[in-house]
Amino acid sequence: MKSTMLITRFICLCFSLPIISNCLAGQEVVNVYSFRQAELINPLIEKFHAKTGIRVNIVSGKADKLMQRLIKDGKNSFADVLLTVDVARLDKAKELDLIKPIYSLALMENIPAHLRDPENFWFGLSLRARAIFYDKQSIKATEILNYKTLLAPKWQGKICSRKGSHLYNRSMIASFIFHYGQNWTKDWVGKFSNNLAMRPNGGDRDQLRNIARGECKIAIANSYYYGMLFASDKQSDRNVYQRVGIVLPKTKKIGTHVNISGAALTSAAKNKVNAIKFIEFLTTKAAQKIYANNNFEYPIRPDMPIGSLLSSWGNLTADTQAVHQLPNFHQQAEEIILQSNW
Ligand SMILES: [Fe+2]
Fold first, then answer.
1. Is there a single domain that holds both residue 176 and residue 294?
2. Cα separation of 66 and 60, whole Å?
3. Which of 90, 117, 135, 219 could form a disulfide with 207 if both were Cys (CB 3.0 to 4.6 A apart)?
4. Ligand 1 mean position to 22 CA, how many Å?
């Protein structure tokens, strides 16, 4: 039922905009499956259309739903481009032959090698940082400088987190296994879950709200959720932002765990040239400014300045070494997490 809805929305979009004649008259188009809602990338679509004359049709949905749809449709898929999140998911799409490589100098130049697939199947578009948050009224940032500091006995019953098995946490744990090995990571997960204030529940933003409600003192969450609270229409969310502080973790060995949102050309792409143009466009400076900023993520390009809000959170030392390795350790990460109460 849901997948029917997805495709219906796709067709409706084509018919609901002035695109109807374009769709039918064969105007240049590119069809995009996007985890990010159409409203969030509309400014990009408009810019791209103004520049190239190519119409972009967006089907938005949850990342897993879009993957399922691609798998189900196979060669008959309408999608030319997949915009999704997490290296493990992009790697899965590669493994399942849902995407194919792009050989593009622009993509190679604009995206650092560690943030794109070595065989050019997928390309990072923004960086997502998993940060530590704390109650500014009772904790100092210097007490929680990195992930290991969260294991101190003094934090027992004071930490909030969404479920350990969520992809965001699984990827972070995969990065720990890559850097420190299984035993270190098992120890980390065991002690971390012992320090939890409550049974994991809700999403990342809920954990920050829990801090503001006094239900815990520390939380782990992706940093863009903090930005969303800052920009929220609700005063209560903006109050959470004021009460909660952020630390971008760093040790001598590793920085902050990061993952990416990324793009890939689908194996079924019928508008391949337009699809490549669109993905290349998303890595231009003008597009990066919008693509990263509208969701409070970090730009993929090292030559892009970050906005004043993200600058105020401190310097991000991204753990870029682990990015390619994350999918290799997901299974082990899952097993370790399942053995805990997280
Ligand atoms: Fe998210």
1. no
2. 8
3. 219
4. 34
Cα of 221 from ligand 1 centre, angstroms: 9
pLDDT digits (tens, 9 = 90+) for 238-279: 999 999 999 999 988 889 999 999 999 999 999 999 999 999
Helical spans, DSSP H, in 136-265: 167-180, 182-194, 204-212, 223-230, 235-243
Q: Can you tell me the mean pLDDT for 170-184?
A: 97
Q: Does 146 lie in the same domain as 103?
A: no
Beta-carbon contacts of 192 under 8 Å, excluding residues fewer than 6 positions away, are: 150, 151, 159, 161, 340, 342
Decide: 66 and 264 in contact? Cβ < 8 Å. no
Ligand 1: distance of its center to the CA of 188 in Å? 23
299 and 214 belong to one structural domain: no
Domain interval for residue 134: 129-256+314-338
* Count of structural domains within the chain: 2
- For the cut 60, the answer to whether the pLDDT of residue 1 exceeds it is no
Interatomic CA distance for residues 286 and 127, integer angstroms? 17
Radius of gyration, CA atoms only, the chain: 21
- Residue 213 sits in a domain whose CATH number is 3.40.190.10
Find the 273 Cα to ligand 1 centroid distance in Å: 30
CA distances from 249 to 115, 135, 141, 183, 197 (A): 20, 16, 10, 21, 21
